Amino acid sequence: MKIVKVVAAVILHEGKILCALKGNHKYEYLSNKYEFPGGKVEQNETPEQAIAREIYEELNLDIKVKKHLITVSHEYPNFKIELITFLCETTTTNKLIIQEHKNIEWLNSSELLSLDWAAADLPIVNYLRENQI
Fold this sequence. Notes:
Elements: E1 3-13, E2 16-21, E3 34-35, E4 38-40, H1 47-59, E5 64-75, E6 80-89, E7 103-107, H2 122-130
Parallel strand pairs: 1-6
Antiparallel strand pairs: 1-2, 1-4, 2-3, 2-7, 5-6
C-alpha cells in the first residue's frame, strides 16, 4: 500500500486553533472533513520547511514552527498516511486567504470535537484536548 508522508500545522493565534474544511475529494471519505492544514514534503525539503511553504501557499500565512507535536500513522482504504504535526504560531491573520479549503474555523481545544474531522486528524484533536493546547 502506498505511504504518503505529509505535514500538518496546528496554528495558534490569540489562543485559538485554525481548523480547515476540505472540499470535495477524489476519495469520498475525505470530502467535506476538517483537517489541520498542510501537505506533502517535497524532495530535499525538511518537514519544517514543508509546513511553512504549504501554509503560505494554502492560506497566505507566515508561520513560526514552535515544535513537533505528534506523528500519526493512519491507514485509509486507498493509502496509508504518515502525518507529522507541528505546533505553529502566526502573529497576524489579516492577510489570510483561503486557497484550497471551503472554510476555516478558529476554535479553542475544548471545541474541536464539534467538527467532523478526517480520521487521520482525530488523534491530533485528542492530543490537543488532553494537553489543553
